Amino acid sequence: MFLSRREVLKGMGATVALPFLEAMGRLRAVGASAGQAPIKLICIEQVHGAAGSSIFGAQQNLWAPATTGRTFDLSSSSLKPLEAWRDHITIISNCDVPSADPTDAREIGGDHFRSSATYLTQTYPKRTEGSDIECGISLDQLHAQRFGQDTPIPSMQLCIENVDQSGGCGYGYSCVYTDTISWASPTKPLPMIRDPRVVFDQMFGVLGSGSAQERRERRQEDLSILDWVRESSKRLERRLGAADRVRLADYLDNVREIERRLQAVEKRNDSGDPRELPMAPRGVPDSFADHVKLMFDLQMLAFRSDITRVFSFKLGRDGSNRVYKESGSTGAFHIVSHHAENPERVRELAKINEYHVSMLPYLLKQLKETPDGDGTMLDNALVIYGSPMGNPNQHNHKRVPFLVAGHAGGAIKGGVHLKAKNGTPLSNVMLSLLHTLGHDDLQRFGDSEGTFSWE
Amino acid sequence: MIKRFALAAALIAFAVSASAQDKKATTADFAGTWNIEVMSHQIALVIEPAEGNKVTATMMMMGRDTLLKGELVEKTLTLVGVKSEANGNMPPEHGTPGHDHDGPPAAGAKPIVVTLQEDGTIAGEMMTTGGPVKWTGEKLRAKKKG
């Protein structure tokens, strides 16, 4: 039986976004061949650079492995958690982000306040605290504007830490430069969402899940969005084949499970018990890992139901002094990042870097286990992970940590460490990534000087 | 023959080295905007040549400007803070380089010693509340914005 997506949505009361079902026929993206699913893009920023970007850290291979090519060794690196995923990652080392460097005396020392703005734009941000902000269009938005129009939401921007500050943040820079990594145009930064509940409501509200009042009532009564569509989903199930019924049931279970976790977090945060993050919205878990995993789950849900194919995800805020006890470091992040080149303290920062990287396998596993086109979602995903800062002790932007995971529809083989020539701007790599995403006609990105070879 | 060649090469190398070492620094060598790294923080030091072997300078940190003046002796530049309104919490415009550097040295001001290194960087020592600290500095390279 063939059902159009419209029929399927009608069957569910147009309330809940659905996973791709065989009954809908094969989905084909613009420019994609039969069986090839559209590329899913996630751009993740780790703030405060990496321990491996310091001289001692580079000597000890705390980020970039000692050898290039396919036989790289991750045992000493903060990338160790990716060992099981080595065939699916491409490490690109020794690149710089010159657009984040100071250009005059007033900008010296202000790196934390402009760094994030440069990450996905690779463009110098104008120093201003006023409304005349200016940077560049970001990689994720270039992609969303061109290829994200087939989905209900072209792109989503998520974050883990507080980013809604206003006015100037320091050294004459507007806070928007610190608050977001996504820029729809040189003058239009996009806000990032910290609260998983807001992400969930945006994703499932987009196709009409009742009014704000109804959503509020549902939350108060701990009801599930699925309770509202139980009858219609049963009707739909009867029209589906066996495989699709399993797929639909798994998907709805997944939606329910995420919703249950959201409700548990909200319940705990409303309980009056002390919170580690008292100022955070009620949907934000105290635990960094829980928060990141919830955000990854929501991203996967969006991919499975084709709500959007483009995410940017900011793991922290520059200058953050969050303590990541699970990393083995008890120091405050920003303070630890100013390690004074002391080997012991550099290693402490490496632990935090490793902890952040250790979040990635949770996402990669789900991508690998999700069928997509003729392969898996990992085959068709491009996960960008890095930082626009290099050695945070010096606030420099040299030898920045950077890797990509996934195969971008076969364009990126993976399983390799590529070391760029000294002085290579990261924008060259990003230009080549945009080419692999289908932006073949793009000649330049940010301050790029050329392309980067994947060989 | 080989020995004679090696000796000549050694003499030339020594002469070049001695010449480089003997080369006296001028205030122009220090002129420009320097990115100073001190105690894991970055500070801007803008140095402008003045009359003879004298310079004026402005140290900028977190929106606060400190006006300095100094003198070059051999390869070492010694800067001292200037008693001036602009050394308070004046807005940055009031502390623009070259402005109001002619006051007397601030009472109790500790000198900042700056030396030019062979690789074109500068290094030195300054007094902080925690005692003397060493620092290094790189010249800010001109870069096209945008």
What are the main properties of this structure?
heterodimer, A: 455 residues, alpha/beta, Alkaline Phosphatase, subunit A, 2 domains, 14 helices, 13 strands, 32% helix, B: 146 residues, alpha+beta, 8 strands, 42% strand
Protein model, in words:
The complex is a heterodimer of chains A (455) and B (146). Helix content of chain A is 32%, strand content 13%. Chain A has 455 residues and is α/β, with parallel strands linked by helices. In chain A, strands 3-8-1-11-12-2-13 form a seven-stranded mixed sheet, sandwiched between helices. A two-stranded antiparallel ribbon of chain A has the order 4-5. In chain A, helix 10 runs parallel beside helix 13. The termini of chain A are far apart. With 146 residues, chain B is α+β, with helices and mostly antiparallel strands. The termini of chain B are far apart. The longest helix of chain B has 21 residues. Chain B has two helices and eight strands. Chains A and B meet through loops of A and strand 1, strand 2 and strand 3 of B.
